[in-house]
Amino acid sequence: MKIEHDEEASRFLAKNDEGKQLGLLEYIRAEGNELYATHTEVRPQHEGKGIASSLVDALVEYAEKTGATIVPMCPYVLARFRKNPEKYANVMKHRGE
């Protein structure tokens, strides 16, 4: 599996070796260098294989590289951030901050 960043479409795509899409994570870039993580989706037949986690990791890596903060709007991203707050403290921005 590989993760591709489609910056123009504001999303990360997980694809298998044949190029078939397995999942995606969409975000919105806002003023102040904020990334609103809005939607994470993995095809049902590929759930439970760590694909969504890899997509979140790619978003976090991108935020760290660009100095952005992430506002977790997507329930999956929010749950990951809440489960491991120390891991994401440097990129997580709470709504309303």
UniProtKB/TrEMBL annotation:
Matching InterPro entries: Acyl_CoA_acyltransferase, Gcn5-rel_NAT, GNAT_dom, GNAT_YJDJ
* Keyword Transferase in annotation: yes
Q: Which Gene3D superfamilies match?
A: 3.40.630.30
**Keywords on record:** Acyltransferase, Transferase
Q: Name one GO molecular function term.
A: acyltransferase activity
**CDD domains per UniProt:** NAT_SF
Report the enzyme's class at the first EC level.
transferase
One matching Pfam family is: Acetyltransf_CG
Query: Does the keyword Isomerase belong to this entry?
Result: no
Q: Which residues form a coiled coil?
A: none
Question: Which EC number(s) are documented for this chain?
Answer: 2.3.1.-
- In what residue span(s) does the N-acetyltransferase domain sit? 1-97, 4-93
**Protein name in UniProt:** GNAT family N-acetyltransferase
Give the species this sequence originates from: Raoultibacter massiliensis
